[in-house]
Fold this protein.
Amino acid sequence: MPNLILIAGMAFVTYFPRLLPLLVLPGRMLPPFLRRFLSFIPYTALGALIIPGVVEAVPGHPSVSLAGVTVAAVCAWYKGGLILPVAVAVITVFLLLSGWGG
Amino acid sequence: MPGGGKNKTGGLATAKTGRKLGARDGFLAGAPVFIGYFSAAVAFGVLARAGGISLRESFLFSALVFAGASQFMALNLLQAQIAAVEIILATLLVNSRHLVMSAALAARLPEKRSWLILPAAFGVTDETFAVAATREQSFGPVFLLSLGVTAYSGWVGGTVTGYLLGTTLPPALQNSMGIALYAMFAAILIPEFKKTRHALFLATGAGILHTVLTWGGFFSPGWNLIAAMVLSAALGACFFKEKGGVKERCPI
């Protein structure tokens, strides 16, 4: 089963980077620069995860993708939460795609 | 807790700020991730079956690796007859971003050690990280673990569901699901702009940098993301300093 070896290898190289900092870092006094750097990672990670990938969220339909994520953003700004913005985005995209085919 | 209604926040007596997040909070925070993962994993199950992967192996992919992007990548590379060693190496490169994310979470964890961090670390993904790291309250491994378990069950459950009956889903619905995780990222990020002005600059900067790196084809896709994330956070740490902080030299 060559695929099982592949899966085991992928499992190891995925788990290791997730585990290492959580084992080593808690309780250490980090220099202020590093602490600030780590506190900014959530924002930069989210920015880089969304842009530019969102354009291809719905393959072949960049404008539909942007419409979907914009609706989610507006909904999250005014209402907060996660489930509602995601549901509204999925429904928007579904309706736009259904209209696309005529 | 009877009589908790007097609380000014209007919620349950336990819903005070400054409280440490626990197991229940993790499950609640994980609910939207569950939904997003379930639908994304259905797509993985469908593609795995189409690629000739057995049900057992598809299940093991999701159950043992639990990393969306690299699992889709592995399917592509398997189709292209790429050697396992190369696929594993590519996986390591793509998933190294979790090193940075786990470090950001670790900086917020309490000093007290717990073995629960071992299973909790397995649950660190882009999505669970984003959900946890943007919470203002403090949390420990219990919160991370219950958040991870919720997301994990969506991912594994969706994989099996997609494998077994995915092809019967209408294509328009399958395509619409692609927006779910991006919508969730946006819904996590946007309210942060109200909390700190740094968030907008940092997120936009990282997005622009990622776009430039991607278009320029500077590194492999996984490394473009890591470079954008790390460089913009480092630049931000140089420019945005706490008021009255000590003078320090910027390392970059």
In short: The mean pLDDT of chain B is 86. Chain B touches chain A through 106 residues (CB under 8 Å). Chain B has two domains: 18-177, 190-242.
